[in-house]
Amino acid sequence: MADLFQGAALPDVTTTTQTQDTAPQFYTDYLQDIANLGQSAVQQGGVAGFSPLQQQALQMAPNMAFAGTGTLGQASQMLTGAGGTAAPEIVGGYMNPYQDYVVDEMGRLTQRNVQENVLPALGAAATGTGQFGSRRQQQVTGNTLRDIQSDLLGRQYQALSGGYDTSIKAAQNDLQRQLQAGQGLTQLGQEQFQTGTGGLNALFNMGANEQKLGQAALDYPMIQAQNYAKLLQGQNIPEGQIKQTTGPGSQGQFGISPLAQIGSLGSILYSLYSGDKDAAAATAVQAGQPVKRAATGGAVLMADGGGLQDVMPNNAAYHDGQGNYYDQDGYLVG
Question: H or E stretch including 16?
């Protein structure tokens, strides 16, 4: 409750305090540099594409995937032919030349010998004995031709038998060679495929090394940014605080009393009325001249009021609230 000498208590006001941790300037600049390096690294980085060697390997891959198929096809034909054919089935092919050049030739030569040698000799013998054209000559000639034919057939059968055996062996040997050739072509086709795909793998792997180098170049800015970010790891960074307080704290404070308000108003009015006189009086005091002023009105107060006893001159009896002091007779004292 307010009275004449003390004002009313001020209402409570809520005070808001905001505290913010702050880092030193060099550290905030360091963090900004890390952010800038990271952003630049993201823009410069990426995923490395296939290298030229890898692209070449990929282009060759469709053809190399079927490397050796032609050779394997030939091998398949040979193996099928050799495996599905018996020697007697093809022995005729081997016997035909033998028949022409051996057996048939034996008959031709025997017939020639009979015509050119045997029959003339038999005729001459019959003529020499007087039996030419006789039954005896015919019998001798027939027996001789029979023996010659029998001998020829025996030799031809023997030749045919030997030729057949030889032809069978030749056919078997040829089928064996065909089988071996098919097996060899199969191995060759497999080797062609392995060589082709192995070359592709080697080419692609060497290209992968090129790709790694390209990726390393793209990753380099980010790695450097990360290394830069680790420079101050584990270091103690001194931090400060910024504190802001909003609103006055008014608990336990009182407003201006009515008496003080009246005194302040009177002082203001008096200073407006006597401002010029106070200035003249102050000038006189500074010159060492006594100044007398009437201590009238509410603007002149007792010098011991308002807590001024510690600073007022010893001979002062009044003050006007403007820092001017007066003695009992109304003269201004310094």
Answer: strand 16-22
Residues 164 and 87: their CA atoms lie apart, in Å, by 11
* CA–CA distance, 52 with 58 (Å, rounded to integer): 10
- Every domain of the chain and the residues it spans: 52-229, 261-333
State mean pLDDT over 170-183.
86
Residue 22's pLDDT is what?
A: 78
Record the tokens describing residue 190, joined without a space: 């497999």
Contact predicate 275/315, CB 8 Å: no
What's the confidence (pLDDT) of residue 13? 60
Residue 266 or residue 225, greater confidence: 225
Predicted confidence at residue 303, as pLDDT, reads: 44
Burial of 122 (0-12, 13-18, 19+ CB in 10 A): buried
pTM of the full predicted structure? Answer: 0.42
pLDDT in tens, 48-64: 888 999 999 889 888 88
Residues in contact with 299: Cβ distance below 8 Å, sequence separation at least 6, in sequence order: 266, 267, 269, 270, 271, 273, 274, 320, 321
Q: What CA–CA distance (Å, rounded) separates 81 from 95?
A: 20
Virtual torsion, Cα 30, 34, 35, 41, nearest 10 deg: 160
**pLDDT tens digits along 301-318:** 444 444 444 456 777 777
Q: Let me know: does 7 contact 250? Beta carbons within 8 Å.
A: no
Sign of CA dihedral 100, 106, 107, 112: positive
**Are the C-beta atoms of 318 and 300 separated by less than 8 Å?**
yes
Question: For 66, which DSSP code?
Answer: T
Assess contact for 171 and 87: CB atoms under 8 A. yes
Take residue 17 and report the two structure tokens written for it: 């305090």
Burial of 91 (0-12, 13-18, 19+ CB in 10 A): buried
